[in-house]
Design a protein that fits this description.
By secondary structure, this protein is an alpha+beta fold. The protein folds into two domains: 91 residues, Pseudouridine synthase (2-Layer Sandwich), CATH 3.30.2350.10; 133 residues, Pseudouridine synthase (2-Layer Sandwich). 25% of the residues lie in helices and 33% in strands. The protein contains six helices and 15 strands. Strands 1, 4, 5, 6, 9, 12, 13, 14 and 15 form a nine-stranded mixed sheet that branches. Strands 2-3 form a two-stranded antiparallel sheet. It has a two-stranded antiparallel ribbon with strand order 7-8. A hairpin with a 2-residue loop joins strand 2 and strand 3.
């Protein structure tokens, strides 16, 4: 495949577990920096590259990375609806609503029935207000929320309007509940975990998350950063042979 990273490419990357989105972009930046398409008017240009929507390190799945002039489409891509699959752990909460921090409180789950769980999921569908996690990159007075959290400061986060288009419970094996969610830009699935636990008179946190779709772009068509780098190297070697 012939790439032109200067005129611009939209790359579909399957972000590995524990990688930050920044690390994934950096891997690609390193892979393309010597690509022939970045030799413009006999001068090598620095690769312009960015991603259209952060994934937490403990999440995997689709990360759209844009290069060159395609970086101008990032805001448009970020506005597309997202689809996620994952797992809630019922009966316990953490300060960050996922596995990054240890459990800080436990709750009963004996009262939970399948009917209650399915009803709660249905109640989440539609337009609603959501408060982002304090351990997030949301700005509060010019600082990231996670900076306050790591300093032990309980800063106030404003709620925001989100839309949950679909909320499907795919399996129930308490304390684990697997789900599929289709939602709008700016939705924190970690916050849904917190709110879902509360709605059921218990507590919950997120233990697994995978982004499977952004608009019409699907993770099935994505490659890992290592695969991208290897494929690019292979294509370069082949073209020089």
């Amino acid at each position: 495949m012939n790439h032109n990273f200067y005129t611009g490419e939209i790359l579909l990357i399957d972000k590995p577990l524990t990688w930050s989105s920044f690390q994934a972009v950096n891997k690609l930046k390193h892979a393309i920096k010597h690509h022939p398409s970045l030799l413009v008017n006999e001068a090598r240009v620095k690769p312009k590259i960015g991603h259209a929507g952060t994934l937490d390190p403990l999440a995997t799945g689709l990360l759209i990375v844009c290069t060159g002039k395609k970086t101008k489409t990032i805001n448009e891509l970020m506005g597309l609806e997202k689809e996620y699959t994952g797992t809630f752990f019922m009966g316990a909460t953490t300060p960050c609503f996922d596995l990054e921090k240890a459990v800080d409180a436990t709750f009963p789950i004996d009262h939970l029935t399948q009917a209650d769980i399915l009803r709660a999921a249905a109640d989440f569908i539609g337009i609603r207000q959501q408060t982002p996690p304090l351990y997030s990159a949301v700005f509060i007075d010019g600082k990231r929320a996670y900076e306050y959290a790591r300093a032990g400061i309980d800063a106030e986060l404003k709620s925001r309007e989100i839309t949950i288009k679909e909320f499907e419970i795919t399996s129930i094996q308490l304390p684990h509940i697997n789900f599929r969610i289709v939602c709008s830009k700016g939705t924190y699935i970690r916050s849904i975990a917190r709110d879902f636990g509360s709605a059921l008179g218990s507590g919950a946190h997120l233990t697994a998350l995978r982004r499977t779709r952004i608009g019409h772009f699907r993770v099935e068509d994505a490659v890992t950063p290592h695969e991208f780098s290897a494929n690019l190297q292979e294509n370069s070697t082949t073209s020089q042979a």
